[in-house]
């Protein structure tokens, strides 16, 4: 009943009141209890049609459990979608519902608030010593492999690109035409794997972390829960907040932590790193990579 984590308190209340409902209201309640994902993204008519009852019956059911009407009853389910507790299709349907109602101002406010909250919540749980320890492991390694797939693929590759402006041992995986498992085949205790995945956790990332761990590789993991399989396996784990009204997990905190981690790597590196970065950018200017003109 609560597999979506959507307003379990409301569902409990509905189940407790179930014997007191009329037979028709029980049909509506049964549908809600069995399909809680639908409530936050469906109108009263859509729920009534799915439950094979009249819309007024759904409204009476909502009032029976202490709400003024269906909209009031639906709000906790919508809140759960905003916070990311519902699945991707439900969130996408909720965004469409907002557009149809012309309530994009509310969506804008929710997006801004979730972005700020994610940053604040993430860094509240991380201290400088954690970042320093991970940075030292990265700097002292032979090779650093960064792994992210799906929405986190670009995050991993961006980190690798930025690091490569001053260091040569960074490799984004999986490489084209390869798999993460193959790319880690010859790793050992001299190497580091930076792995990123959030719910629903990508199997290939979890498997790569497990393999790397068995081979003695030091694991730096970014994920959205202390119970994430890659956080549990990590030598250096960072929990990022990924809540969002959008239908994919937010990457804002992940990017912020990666940028901060890289700044710590530069900070703990030997003095030669400054010369490397300067030489890298000087060569790019010499090769005409950057546009010339007013600055």
UniProtKB/TrEMBL annotation:
Q: Where is the SIS domain?
A: 134-279
Its BP terms in the Gene Ontology are: carbohydrate derivative metabolic process
Xref: Pfam families: HTH_6, SIS
Q: Which residues form the HTH rpiR-type domain?
A: 8-84
Q: Name one GO molecular function term.
A: DNA-binding transcription factor activity
Does the record bear Transcription in its keywords? yes
InterPro entries linked to this entry: Homeodomain-like_sf, HTH_RpiR, RpiR-like, RpiR-like_SIS, SIS_dom, SIS_dom_sf, WH-like_DNA-bd_sf
Cited PROSITE patterns = HTH_RPIR, SIS
- State the CDD domains in the record: SIS_RpiR
Question: Any keyword Transcription?
Answer: yes
**The entry's keywords:** DNA-binding, Transcription, Transcription regulation
Protein name per UniProt = Transcriptional regulator, RpiR family
Native species: Cognatiyoonia sediminum
């Amino acid at each position: 009943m609560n597999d979506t984590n959507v307003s379990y308190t409301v569902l409990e209340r509905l189940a407790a009141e179930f014997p007191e409902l009329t037979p028709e209201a029980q049909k509506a309640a049964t549908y809600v209890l069995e399909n809680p994902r639908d409530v936050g993204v469906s109108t009263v008519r859509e729920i009534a049609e799915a439950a094979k009852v009249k819309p007024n019956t759904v409204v009476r059911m909502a009032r029976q459990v202490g709400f003024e009407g269906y909209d009031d009853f639906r709000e906790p389910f919508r809140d759960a979608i905003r916070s990311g507790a519902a699945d991707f299709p439900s969130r996408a349907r909720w965004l469409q519902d907002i557009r149809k109602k012309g309530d994009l101002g509310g969506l804008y406010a929710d997006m801004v608030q979730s972005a700020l909250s994610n940053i604040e919540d993430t860094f509240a749980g991380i201290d400088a010593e954690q970042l320093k320890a991970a940075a030292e492991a990265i700097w002292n390694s032979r090779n650093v492999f960064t792994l992210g797939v799906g929405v986190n693929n670009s995050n991993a590759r961006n980190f690798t690109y930025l690091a490569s402006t001053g260091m040569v041992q960074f490799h984004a995986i999986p490489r084209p035409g390869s798999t993460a498992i193959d790319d880690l085949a010859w790793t050992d205790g001299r190497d580091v794997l930076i792995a990123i995945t959030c719910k629903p956790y990508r199997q290939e990332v979890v498997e790569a972390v497990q393999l790397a761990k068995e081979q003695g590789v030091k694991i730096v993991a970014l994920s959205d829960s202390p119970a994430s399989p890659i956080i549990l396996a990590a030598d250096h784990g960072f929990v990022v907040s990924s809540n969002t009204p959008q239908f994919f997990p937010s990457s804002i905190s992940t990017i912020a932590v990666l940028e901060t981690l890289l700044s710590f790597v530069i900070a703990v590196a030997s003095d030669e790193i400054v010369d490397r970065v300067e030489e890298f950018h000087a060569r790019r200017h010499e090769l005409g990579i950057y546009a010339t003109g007013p600055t």
